[in-house]
């Protein structure tokens, strides 16, 4: 399902202008990463996608729905939302109830709820703890639980605010697999992250925000190559890209494999000169 | 965003008042909440004073919403508890062995109204005053920063409570819960959350206290402030009147309790 933002501005009641003239179209099935320094407006932007915030100006379309005509609860059928802070999201007594909460609200049958809970907990590796209390888990695991609760909603669009923050290699691996799966299933994925390596590896397209505006956007390779723009937005490209730039290699290798390939070619060319 | 975000920027007379004038008003509200004898008085104060002030401050919507969000869950739990368990003659209905009485209902509602008045006073202050201004006003008048902080913390429990209630409701809606279905329903949904809410708010506030401490908040060195707060003779007079009224209310209450 696609998503469109047209001429959107947003001002908080405290007077802060957090979004300033945003136009954006996210086609169905795309994996988009949103980057930018703290306070750039990333979270504010994605909160418009499920109606938690309403634009002060402009329109947001979720598929063929004008978001202004639907409640957040209705939009939840189309947009799953992982909050930046998992503690903002967890309120049930057991992991199973927490994950089942969304599907139950959307009217899934008990058998269906059970099935989705089991599958989602399995995906994040928490299936052994289904009856534990969410707050008995350490924070990184709580984030994975929140992710499971989001996945269980089975929405065509998913918004993930900082999915990898605080995760160790195991957690990152799990999230990476989940994203890849969801992407293959054709879901539209929007992820906010400061984890450059993770974004470079997974995102098809990137959008860099600065002071409530879109500063640069384009394919991941394209954006990662724009050193000056990234500098202005206080975003550091991943180590591999910086290494390639330091070596004055052409191209923007995003994975280790890419880097090795490009490096070999480049060496060959240099030698033959 | 927790705490701090409760301030709402507007250009209004209420916003321009010296923070201490508003503190005096809040004090009067707390005194009234404790001292006024019954439901009609409390509601009259809310409708006759607090609401007009909120309108003057161009905060009506935010003010009412916050009142609802915080007092809502309490209204319900208090009326249920009091209605069933505080006794009384006039039975309204029975649930098994338990009788729900009119006297109990009234007691519950009165208690909730006390909460509403105290909260209303706090909200008027916090929604119209940036926190640094308040802190500055208190310390300028020779309040030891430590005590100023305790005062601030105490009045912030309510707003912080409101923030958390909002956050939880956001999360519930984001997972498909319709909240349109009226006030009572909202209160019912928040009810199981009263525990975590209080806990969370206290944790928020104490975390902030630690953060301040870590930045040498209670250092004895004199702090410099960058701006000055506007004050006037009239405001001073009003302030004293409000404080006197608060003290008189409390004394009257004490006196009548001793009779
Ligand atoms: N509830 C709020 N009330 C008032 N201002 C807010 C609120 N939430 C965010 N802001 C302000 O809006 C601006 C954008 O904030 P936002 O949370 O969208 O940034 P972000 O890009 O998600 O940052 P981060 O990387 O720190 O999560 C900031 O200036 C922030 O201080
Ligand atoms: Mg954010």
Walkthrough of the structure:
Chain A has 273 residues and is of the alpha/beta class. Chain A has helices spanning 42-47, 72-75, 95-105, 110-123, 139-151, 169-184, 196-202, 220-225, 227-232, 239-246, 256-272, and strands spanning 3-11, 17-26, 31-35, 57-62, 65-66, 79-82, 157-161, 188-192, 205-210, 213-219. A six-stranded mixed β-sheet of chain A has the order 6-7-8-3-9-10. A four-stranded antiparallel β-sheet of chain A has the order 2-1-4-5, with no helix packed on it. In chain A, helix 3 packs across helix 4 (110-123) and helix 3 packs parallel to helix 5 (139-151). Chain B has two domains: 13-130 and 229-258, no CATH class; 144-214, no CATH class. Chain B is 73% helix and 3% strand. Chain B has ten helices and two strands. The longest helix of chain B has 30 residues, at 145-174. Chain B is globular and about 65 Å long. The N and C termini of chain B lie far apart (49 Å). The interface between A and B is medium-sized, with 25 and 20 residues. The complex binds adenosine-5'-triphosphate and magnesium ion (MG). Adenosine-5'-triphosphate is lined by residues 12, 14, 16, 18, 36, 38-44, 84 of chain A. Magnesium ion (MG) binds next to helix 1 of chain A.
Tell me the strand percentage band of chain B.
under 5%
**Helical content of chain B (DSSP H or I, runs of 4+):** over 70%
Q: State the separation between the terminal residues of chain B, measured CA to CA.
A: 49 Å
Helix count from the secondary structure assignment of chain B: 10
For the biggest sheet of chain B, the summary is: 2 strands, antiparallel
- Summarize the biggest pleated sheet of chain A: 6 strands, mixed
Instruction: Compute the CA-based radius of gyration of chain A.
Output: 20 Å
Find the biggest chain interface.
A-B, 25 and 20 residues
Given the C-alpha coordinates, what overall shape of chain A results? Answer: globular
Structural class of chain B: mainly alpha
- Kindly estimate the percentage of residues of chain A that lie in beta strands according to DSSP: 15-25%
Q: Please give the radius of gyration of chain B in angstroms.
A: 20 Å
Low-confidence stretches of chain B: none
Poorly predicted regions of chain A: none
| SSE string of chain B, helices as H and strands as E | HHHHEEHHHHHH
* Residue-averaged pLDDT of chain A: 92
- SS class of chain A: alpha/beta
Tally of domains of chain B: 2
Ions, cofactors and other bound molecules: adenosine-5'-triphosphate, magnesium ion
What's the average pLDDT of chain B? 80
